[in-house]
Amino acid sequence: MTKTRSIGVAGLGFLGRGIAVCLQNHGFHVVALEPRGAVASSGSLTLAQGAEELRDCEFIIETITEDFAAKNALFDELEKYVGPAVPIASNTSAIPISSLQAKRKYPQRFAGMHWAPPAETTRLMEIIRGDQTDDETIQRIVDLAQELGKEPGIVRKDIAGFVANRLAYAMYREALHMLEEGVAELETIDLLCKNSLGLWAPVCGPFRWMDMTGGPALYAKAMEWIVPTLSNQAEVSETMKKMRETNGYFYPRTPEIVDEWQAKLDEQAGRMAIQPTD
C-alpha cells in the first residue's frame, strides 16, 4: 500500500474541522481550503485560499455545504490543478455520487466518503461507489479509512442517503408519524428509542440483532402485524414543514441546555473513540 501523506480538505465547517484534526492526529499534513481564513495555519495544517494550493495533495476530501451547484463549482476548480490520478472524495450525506461525477473530466476517481461527527473520534466511514468509480479509488479510500482507525463499509449501489442515513431517516419518519397520530409524546418516543436502540446499536446492526433475539422467523411474524401500519408517506411531514418555516426545535433550547446535551454526546463519543497513532 502506498501511504498518502498530504491530504487536501476543502471546507472547514461542521465536519471539516474534525476531519482535519483526525488526519493530523494520524500523521498527515493537511492543506485546508478555507477562503474565509477561519483557522490559522500550524505545523501540520496549511490554510489555503484557493484550489491551486491543493495541487500537490495526494488525496482530496470535499466537505462543503450540501449544495449540488456549490460542490460542482468546487470540483471545476479542483480539476484545473489536481492531477488525474488523485482521488477526490465527497463527504456528502445525501447527494448521489453518480450525479456529482457525471460531468467530471476523470469521473473514475470520484467517490463518496461519508464521515460522522465528531469526525476525529467516530468510527463510521461510509464509502460510496458511483456509477463510474473505479476499484483503485475505492481501495485508496479503504486504505486511508483503516489507517485512520475507521471501520469502512462500502456501499456498492449509489442511492440518495446511502445506507446509514436511509436507515436513520426511515426511523425519523416513523417517529414523526407516531407523534402526529398521538401514539405517544415526543419525550416518550425519544425515551423508548434510547432504551431500545441504545442497548444493541453500539454493538451490532439490525441483522445481527435479529439473529441474536429470536431469528428471522420470529421477526417475520411480527412484521406481518407491524409493516402494514408503518408510515410510507412520500412527502415531508406537516410537523417538519411547520418547524422548517419557523426554524424551530423539538425541545426548549438555551445555551445551557445545548451545552448539557453536547457534553453527553461527547462523553458517549469518547467511549467509542478511535485512538490516534504515535
Task: Please specify the SSE layout and strand pairing.
Layout lengths: L5 E5 L5 H10 L3 E5 L11 E4 L10 E4 L5 H14 L6 E3 L6 H5 L8 E5 L9 E5 L6 H13 L3 E5 L8 H17 L5 H15 L5 H7 L3 H11 L11 H9 L8 H17 L7
Fold and architecture overview:
Helices cover 42% and strands 13% of the residues. The protein has 278 residues and is α/β, with parallel strands linked by helices. It has three domains: 6-155, NAD(P)-binding Rossmann-like Domain (Rossmann fold, 3-Layer(aba) Sandwich), CATH 3.40.50.720; 163-234, N-(1-d-carboxylethyl)-l-norvaline Dehydrogenase, domain 2 (Orthogonal Bundle), CATH 1.10.1040.10; 238-273, no CATH class. It has an eight-stranded mixed β-sheet with strand order 3-2-1-4-5-6-7-8. It is globular and about 55 Å long. The model has no long low-confidence stretch (mean pLDDT 92).
If helices are DSSP runs of H or I spanning 4 or more residues, what is the number of helices? Answer: 10
Counted up, domains total: 3
- The count of strands amounts to 8
- Give the SSE order as H and E letters: EHEEEHEHEEHEHHHHHH
- Superfamily (CATH H level) name of the largest domain: NAD(P)-binding Rossmann-like Domain
Strand order of the largest sheet: 3-2-1-4-5-6-7-8
Percent helix range: 40-55%
For the termini, the CA-CA separation is 20 Å
Overall, the morphology is globular
CATH class of the largest domain: Alpha Beta
How would a textbook summarize the main sheet?
Answer: 8 strands, mixed
At the fold tier of CATH, the topology name of the largest domain is: Rossmann fold
Architecture (CATH level 2) name of the largest domain: 3-Layer(aba) Sandwich
Average pLDDT for all residues: 92
Uncertain segments: none
Q: What structural class do you assign from the helix and strand content?
A: alpha/beta
